[in-house]
Write a structure and sequence with these properties.
Shape: globular
Radius of gyration: 20 Å
Strand content: 25-35%
Order of helices and strands: HEEEEEEEEE
Helix content: 10-25%
Oligomer: single chain
Number of helices: 1
Largest sheet: 5 strands, antiparallel
């Protein structure tokens, strides 16, 4: 009788513990690294400083609805600082798609839209106020970089 109670208790406790662990697992992140990769269609690079200087991080492949949790990766001023609300300049190395930097998470608010293969030394609407990045996605209140 005792063994079956322990087994029953374990049968209830184990899934609950597993659910707690899985429930607090980190959210999936977009592919981010120090550089763009040749085989990736979309790539946008945030720089910590104006003039495309300082530390930087490249976002490759898919859009990012919230830049929280990402940091500047390369050596230089800003290394280790959060990307969200800390980028001063940007480079869209996507060959075919526009890239839009948004003021708010979830692809909303003021924005800067970049034509393919376009960069700026200083973000206009999202200078140090950048919360999401959309590839092939525009906004309604965007400064256009051509």
């Amino acid at each position: 009788m005792r063994a079956s109670r322990k087994t029953a208790a374990l049968a209830v406790a184990l899934p609950a513990a597993l659910a707690a662990v899985l429930g607090t697992a980190p959210l999936a992140h977009a592919d981010a690294g120090p550089y763009c990769l040749n085989e990736v269609k979309n790539c946008g690079i945030f720089f910590y400083n104006s003039g495309r200087t300082g530390s930087f991080t490249a976002f490759r492949g898919s859009s990012v609805s919230n830049l929280a949790g990402y940091t500047f990766l390369t050596s230089g001023t800003g290394k280790g600082q959060p990307v969200k609300n800390n980028a001063a300049s940007f480079n869209n190395l996507s060959v075919d798609n526009i890239a839009t930097v948004f003021y708010n998470s979830g692809y909303s608010g003021a924005c800067d839209t970049f034509a393919p293969l376009t960069a700026t030394d200083r973000l206009h609407n999202t200078y140090n106020e950048n919360a999401s990045l959309g590839f092939a996605r525009g906004g309604t209140d965007c400064y256009k970089w051509n």
